[in-house]
Amino acid sequence: MTYKHGHVVSVPDPHERRSSRPVVIISDGDAHDHGELYTTAALTGSDHYGQNRYAVTVEKDEPAIGELLKRSHVEPWVTQQVHHDDIRDVHARFGEETMKRIAKAFATMVLRG
Amino acid sequence: MPIHVDDLKNDEPFPVKPDTNEYEALSFLVAHREYGFTPSEIADHTDIDGASASKTMVRLFEKGLVERSEGAYYAPPDRVDTLKQRLESLDSASQLFASVPNGDVYAEEGWEDEVPSIDPEQETATPDESDSASTENQAADLIEDLETDHPEE
């Protein structure tokens, strides 16, 4: 089983002290080592972080499959590569329109630099 | 009975935690994959205390994460790339937790139980199911739009 582009997954705390963190998978099958490693962008429920100009706000019931805990914000400035076995669960999958907004946030961030 | 790293399941965390002697020793051996080192040599090249190095290496050996020959420990050649990925992923996960803002509902214990799991195989229309040329054209249009919207930036 391979996780897919747009999946919102939870990543456990490697220190096992806190709840897991949600991230969205932004890489796909054309990325190197996809299936073993996934490039992800962090999600937060913090409205303070949601005010950042690059944050992408996603409504609770916006995912094409599943839902979020509440209105959340994708943080394009927090990207990490996570191994397949460090992912615990899949909670939702973003649809094309949501992924386009995330792509636009990334493009804006890169172009303005 | 040690668990082979390739046999670890999703719900079983990697048997080494970040910021520990085991993590540091394993990282060192993975970075120097072509050589074997005694515990004292590993202590000399890392921040691991000399008195702790032997116990650290025995624990890694018992977990099946390193191999041993004539007193020297080394990263298993056939699994060193996987171990490297796992260690890097541990670093990534640690970074995710280092940047958690105050008041984030996702930092509350048990949030995962309030959001039902979905079947990862369930399909939906997303860009990775579009053909590459179409997606590349969309990206090019997106960049053109951004440059038109903010020509001075």
Descriptive report:
- The complex is a heterodimer of chains A (113) and B (153).
- In chain A, 19% of the residues lie in helices and 35% in strands.
- Chain A has helices spanning 47-50, 96-112, and strands spanning 7-11, 21-25, 37-44, 56-58, 65-66, 72-83, 89-93.
- In chain A, strands 4-6-3-2-1-7-5 form a 7-stranded antiparallel beta sheet.
- The longest helix of chain A has 17 residues, at 96-112.
- Chain B has 6 helices and 2 strands, in the order H-H-H-E-E-H-H-H.
- Chain B has a two-stranded antiparallel sheet.
- In chain B, strand 1 and strand 2 form a beta hairpin.
- In chain B, helix 2 (39-45) crosses helix 3.
- In chain B, 23% of the residues are buried.
- The model of chain B has no long low-confidence stretch (mean pLDDT 87).
- Chains A and B meet through strand 1, strand 2, strand 3, helix 1 and strand 5 of A and helix 4, helix 5 and helix 6 of B.
Short key terms for the protein model shown above:
heterodimer, A: 113 residues, alpha+beta, seven-stranded antiparallel beta sheet, 2 helices, globular, B: 153 residues, mainly alpha, two-stranded antiparallel ribbon
Compact summary:
The complex is a heterodimer of chains A (113) and B (153). Helices cover 19% and strands 35% of the residues of chain A. By secondary structure, chain A is α+β, with helices and mostly antiparallel strands.
